[in-house]
Design goal:
The protein has 10 helices and 15 strands. The chain is of the alpha/beta class. It has 2 domains: about 5-145 and about 295-325, Response regulator (Rossmann fold); about 150-295 and about 325-345, Response regulator (Rossmann fold, 3-Layer(aba) Sandwich), CATH 3.40.50.2300. Strands 1, 7, 8, 9, 10, 11, 13, 14 and 15 form a 9-stranded mixed beta sheet that branches. The chain has a 6-stranded parallel beta sheet with strand order 3-2-4-5-6-12, sandwiched between helices. Bound molecules: alpha-L-arabinofuranose (AHR).
Length: about 350
Amino acid sequence: MRSLSAKAICFIMMISLCCFSAGCDSRPDNVKTENNTEEDLVVVGFSQVGSESYWRNVNTESMKSVFTKENGYRLIFEDAQQKQTNQITAIRSFIQREVDYIVLAPVTETGWDTVLTEAKEAGIPVIIVDRKVDVSDDSLFTCWVGSDFELEGMLVCMWMSKFFDLKGIDPGDVHIADIQGTLGSSAQLGRTKGFDYMADLHGWDVVGYAEGEFTRSKGREAMSEILRKNDDVNVVYCENDSEALGAIEVLEAAGKKCGSDIAGGEVMIVCFDGISEEVRACVANGKISCIGECNPLHGPRVASIIRSLEAGDEPEKYQYVTEGIFSDTSEIEKVMISGQERTVTVIRQP
Ligand code: AHR
């Protein structure tokens, strides 16, 4: 079992970011690497979801640090502020500006057929990152890179089920609520599906669902709503770490203690991402019990796709990122589901 301190994990992420931002082989082969003129540059239009979470900000930084002039790119960045209509407008403006590539991190899965057909007709390759699009014809995008959100959800639930078994907790005594992400986004659909499947499989008592939109403030509202209706809730499955931080604030204000000892009256919090220092500190001090990793460093992955397209190759259509599990305890070393095994990394106090 690996055991990394919060600082060590942060360091690894910093190194990755620095390495990628220093241009570790991010350049397309056909562009000059010094004194690039405007005409040499590969123009990339990137429509980002917004800045709803710490994860999203790290993701934006990953893209910006790779798509630099020094690396042979000109990046046109558009923040959609969580609105699909803004993303559609951005894509249309990329088409008008005749960019070389469109990169889309879609807020929700549906509603993309028309605008992606326009991009296809304009001959511009579209690379989807992070969440997926649900389109009638998958030739409307060139490829996708991101996380398997359903697997993330099942892995976290598997960790919980092993933990409850270990502590002799009856599944019927698990009163669990789901604070969901932006409804209709792949991250929400996948994590909720994984949760529903596992809750049903194990016979947990699902007390309710509330929408947290992947933000801390909505996480607070969702937690308050859940508590109002179900004061006996003893496990909260938060679909990202911003929501978890909001939920903890509300639970503590209500006099509840967050931790793994649900038999002793604590409320267990589990979530996804594992990016921010604040959240890792909550794992180290036991307020968050388990996190399903969601890796935001897509900049270098997209650059590698563009490089192979520039070289005339055909990159794999769906590129899944392998992600792990973080926890506050070394009691569970590995988690396995659907033939996928993950080692649990323990986050300790620095
Ligand atoms: O799509 C990935 C999700 O979106 C991350 O879990 C969340 O933090 C972000 O806002």
